[in-house]
Amino acid sequence: MTGKRALYRRKSCTKTPCSVLCLVGIYTFNSLAEMHQYMKEKWNSKITNGDTVYILGDIAMRGTNEELMALVAQLKGRKVLIKGNHDDVSDMRYKNVFEEIYDYKEITDYADQDAYKLVLSHYPILMWNGQHRGTIHFYGHTHNTYENEFYQE
Predict the structure, then answer these.
(1) Is the pLDDT of residue 77 over 70?
(2) Continuous H helices in the chain
(3) pLDDT digits over 117-133, tens only?
């Protein structure tokens, strides 16, 4: 396998100031443009065009968004979208900025010559393929609900 893979989830934001949740924490920005610039710089400093990046859904709220599509097109890497409930993939531009789009995907990835089976979805799944044989489930959609707290236990 060439390149590295990264999991990244963008939280939509419509108000100023806004925040984005990513792998390393929560940041506050004074504008959407400032957030987009920060995301692009951080992303492109870590990701190369040889890397595959799985985005676990909700890249944007439903509807057309010229600015968002332009931003995603500037991000390095082979971008694969695991479709979320706010992703309107009937917009043909999604097919232009993402190499693949799935509802759910099972992959095998490697780290230090060890193979890891992964299940990728937008939603948490109570039972997934291989869960009792070491398969790891990554998902993007969560809320502060009783169901999510139960799932985390």
Answers:
(1) yes
(2) 32-46, 66-74, 93-97, 146-152
(3) 999 999 888 899 999 99
